[in-house]
């Protein structure tokens, strides 16, 4: 699914899923760098993000996979 990742003025990461018109903050990451790992949203959804470099600028739209559907 398409997911837009962004960081707000306070530095909080969030994910927006246009198909569901859903925006939720990212509350945890399985590893220090979110790229190529799994993040958990405030609503409990877990998303596997693609592998990208740590210098990747936000906001960005990526193809992510929802786990545990």
TrEMBL record:
GO terms for biological process: nitrogen fixation. It comes from the Bacteria. This is NifT protein. The lineage of its organism: Bacteria, Pseudomonadati, Pseudomonadota, Betaproteobacteria, Nitrosomonadales. InterPro entries: NifT, NifT/FixU_barrel-like_dom_sf. It comes from Sulfuriferula multivorans. SUPFAM superfamilies: NifT/FixU-like.
């Amino acid at each position: 699914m398409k997911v837009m990742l962004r960081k707000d003025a306070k530095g909080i990461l969030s994910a927006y899923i246009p198909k569901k018109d859903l925006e939720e903050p990212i509350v945890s990451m399985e590893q220090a760098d979110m790229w190529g790992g799994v993040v958990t949203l405030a609503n409990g959804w877990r998303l596997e993000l693609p592998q990208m470099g740590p210098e990747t600028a936000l906001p960005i739209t990526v193809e992510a996979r929802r786990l545990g559907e």
